[in-house]
Amino acid sequence: MHTFDTSREHGYLYAVGIQQTSIHSVSGPTLEGNHSLRFYLGIYLALSIMSSLIGTFKFYYIYRGSVQASRRLFAKLNFTVLRTPLRWLDTVPMGRILNRFTADFHVVDSQLANSVSFGANAFLSLMGILAASLFVSPYIILLACVLLVIALYYALIYLDGARPVKRLESTAKSPVFEQFGSALTGVATIRGFDKSQVYVDRMFRKIDDWSTATWHLWLFNRWMGWRMGLVGSLFSSIVAILILVTPSIDAALAGFAFAFALEFSNSVMWTIRLYAAIELNMNAAERIIEYTELPTESLGGKSPSAAWPTEGRIEVEDLVVGYAPDLPPVLKGLTFSVNRKERVGVVGRTGAGKSSLTLALFRFLEARTGSIYIDGVDISEIKLHDLRSRLAIIPQVSRLTTSYTV
Question: In Å, how far are 320, 359, 388 from 367, measured between CA atoms?
C-alpha cells in the first residue's frame, strides 16, 4: 500500500513509489519517429502547392484548347457556309443555319470543356479509389465491381433514350429561329394583312414543340440521377452493415472502408453522368461538323490580267443553265453578244430567266453546257473571287424589278 505526499518542490508532484511528469513539461503532443512537426507540415505544404499548380495547368490547358477548337470550327463553318452553292441556301431553312451558329456553338464554348475536364477528374479519382482499396480487402473490390456494373447498366439505358431526344431538341429549336426571322423580315406585310395573331400562335406552337423535347431531356436526366443516387446509397449501406456485423475489424480499417464506400459511389455517379453529358454535348459538335463538310463552289481556276475587263464585251454561246441537276433548265441554248459601250435591257415576264442570266454571269449558277466570254476570257476558267470582284451589280430599291449593270 502506497502513501501519498502532497508536498510540492520546484513545481513537481511526488508520490511514494510513483513519480509523475511535470505539468510544465507537457507542452504538446509527441510525434512518433525521428521527424519533427515541421517535416510533415513541409510535406503537406509541398503537396498542396503541387496540387494547385497541376490543377491550374490542367484547367488552363483544357480551356485554351477548347477556345482554339471552337475558333477553328467557327472559321471552317463560316468559310463553308459562305461558299456553298446557291441551291443549298435556297433549300435549307435559315433557322437551321442560325441554330448551328448560336445554340450549338454555345454548347461547344461553355459546356463541352467543363464536361471533359470534370469528367476526366472524376474518372481519375475513381481509379485512385480503386487502387487504394487493393490495400484493404478484396471483398470491397467485388462490391465495387457490382456497383459499377449496375451503374453502367442504367447509364446505357439512359444514353439509348437521351441521345435521340437530344437530337430532337436541337432540331426542334431551328424552326423557332426560322419563324422569328421570317416574322421580323415581313413585319410590315403581317401587320398590313392583320395576321399578327396567326404568327404569334404559330410561334407558340413551335416553342411548345421545342419545350416538350427539352422537358423530356431533363426528365431523362432526373431518371438517371435518382437511380444513380439510389445505387450509391445502397452500396454505402451494405458496406456499413458488413462493418457492423464484423466486430473483429480494426477501427482504422473500418473507417477507411466506410469512407471508401462513400467516395466510390460518388465518383462512380459523377463519372458516368459526366460521360453521358460529354456524349450528349458532342451532338452539338456533330451538327457543326456536318455543315463544315458541305460541298462548296469551285475555288480553283486561273487569275485574269490585272486590268480585266477593259472593254466589257460579252459573248454567250449556246448557254444552258438550271438551278439544280434534277430540275429542268431555265436558259436553253441562249446565244447573244454585247459589244463595248453598249447598253442592253433584258425584258421578259416573271420566270423568263432575267435573274438567272445575271446569276450565270456571276457563276452563282454554273453552266451545264455552253460558255460565257467577257473580253475574250471564259469565265468558267477563272477564279470566282477574281470574277465577282471585277463585276458590279446595282439592285434597285423596289423588289418587283431589278436592274443590273455589268
Answer: 6, 10, 16
319 and 227 inside one domain: no
Closest CA to 315 of 374, 392, 360: 374
- Examine residue 323 and state whether it is found in any structural domain, yes or no: yes
35 located within any domain: no
How many domains does the chain fold into? 2
33: left (phi over 0), alpha (psi -120 to 50) or beta: left
pLDDT of 78 higher than 90: yes
Q: What is the mean pLDDT of residues 38-46?
A: 88
Residues 6+ apart with CB under 8 A from 277: 111, 115, 119
Q: What's the burial of 24, exposed, middle or buried (CB within 10 Å: 0-12/13-18/19+)? A: exposed
Residue 273 is assigned to a structural domain of this protein:
yes
Do 249 and 185 fall within a single domain? yes
Instruction: Looking at the structure, tell me whether residues 123 and 198 fall in a common domain.
Output: yes
Cell numbers for 175, please give them.
424552326
Identify the band that residue 229 occupies on the pLDDT scale cut at 50, 70 and 90. Answer: confident
Q: Is the dihedral of CA 61, 63, 66, 67 positive or negative?
A: negative
Cis peptide, bond prior to residue 309, ω within 30 of zero: yes
Whether residues 217 and 266 share a domain: the answer is yes
How large is the angle between the packed helices 112-133 and 251-292, nearest 10 degrees? 150
Expressed as residue numbers, the domain containing 364 is: 314-390
